[in-house]
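== Item description ==
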Amino acid sequence: MPVVRGCNLPDDLLYDVENNLWYRDNGDETFTVGMTMIATGMAGQLVAFTAKKAGKTIKEGKSCATIESGKWVGPAKLGFESEITETNEELSATPTLANSDTYGAGWMVKVKPVDFAAAKGMLTPGTEVAGPYEAKMAADEFAGCAA
């Protein structure tokens, strides 16, 4: 598993580095989507998570959810057009799951891309993500996840 500046990036996931999101291929042309450890590290402890409703189609570059922490309020943007098939109600009730179980119970939404193959091709495999994330963290002036 790549570890960049103390942030874990499981190599079995795919990444949208620009938007700090991870994607898990569910094997049925859908993805489970969540914030990376880098995103939660930058945001700090989450206090609110509000996803768009299941059944809603999200255009490329638009928000699938709003995330709020003590430091930041902002959108979680998808890199490609997708329909939300499920939202994580548990995360809405307990937003800190994104901090404590980033790559498990802290997932945000499940999506079905309009073009699954093209969407998957836009994502960076976990085995190749260390370099792009090192560059992004340097550009964002983010020291890392180590306390």
In short: The CA atoms of residues 60 and 80 lie 4 Å apart. Helices lie at 37-43, 89-93, 97-100, 116-122, 130-139. The first strand starts at residue 3 and ends at 4. The chain has a mean pLDDT of 96.
